[in-house]
Amino acid sequence: EAARKLFMGEVDFLKGVVAMDGLPPDDRAEVCFAGRSNVGKSSLINALTGRKALARASNTPGRTQEINFFTLGEERYLVDLPGYGFANAPVAVVDKWQRLLKQYLSGRATLRRAFVLVDFRHGIKKVDEEILTLLDKSAVPFQVVMTKQDKVKAVDQEKVLEQVRTALSRHPAAYPEIVTTSSEKGDGIATLRAIIAGLT
Ligand code: GTP
Ligand code: MG
What we know:
This protein has about 200 residues and is α/β, with parallel strands linked by helices. The protein has a single domain, classed as P-loop containing nucleotide triphosphate hydrolases (Rossmann fold), CATH 3.40.50.300. β5, α4 and β6 form a beta-alpha-beta unit. The model has no long low-confidence stretch (mean pLDDT about 95). The site of guanosine-5'-triphosphate has 24 residues, from α2. The site of magnesium ion has 6 residues, from α2.
């Protein structure tokens, strides 16, 4: 209930950041949403906050091109990151975001937890492994959030979860619990809200 109140309360877009010196002051607890292009990061932020178009989502990979900061209440930031992996943008531009993404993930003191989104249809890929290893090295605690649960039949879900569990067992910075979600149907959204509300 407290979590619902927090997310239904004041949520605003603060700014889009294109370089490390543009980051807002690190005076709040911060959680970010990382993952391959098109995995559903922006859609998840919209589902969490109950706003349809707070974060811009689209079917074109590479939609989010900046580090977007949202204020959640008075004490937290939600951070929507550009995707990694394939993107519909020129290579030089993509390289620039990827560098910024890595700098952010390894150098943000107030980052309490990185949520790494994994598409339920695909499981953990090689590009994800790179990011997970970076998070280990930077000692950023991370938690996997499965997305697009509505696209995979219940009988096929366990096999993917097993692949993810096995991959996570090799990463010291990983939380073992996996959150399964559908931004489309709303599954797992309350669980994720409660996790974020509980972080201080
Ligand atoms: P980039 O910003 O390009 O890295 O992508 P993103 O990770 O922010 O993905 P985005 O939220 O823009 O979603 C990509 C596509 O997946 C959109 O067409 C969404 O509607 C769709 N999508 C996201 N979440 C879900 C979900 O839970 N279920 C279904 N069926 N589709 C989803
Ligand atoms: Mg996005």
